[in-house]
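USER: For my understanding, would you kindly supply a protein sequence with its structure tokens?

ASSISTANT:
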Amino acid sequence: MAARVALGMVELQGLKERVRARFEVSVAEVDHQDTWQRATIALAYVSSDARHANEVVSKAMDFIEEHVEGMVLDTTVEIL
């Protein structure tokens, strides 16, 4: 399962590390690296149980929305 989250914010590194440590998902900045105060991060989680993967990714996205130093501009979730 994969998710993309577009953010308008200032601090990204701390957020990525907290999400990675708390939910054991892969997190990477995938877009807007050259744009000031904007970022897009991707989350990935692999599981043989789609329901469990959906739960983990949903909780991670909720955590991002609650802890972002800025605002969530857009989200996309994809089951691969």
Summary: The CA atoms of residues 51 and 62 lie 16 Å apart.
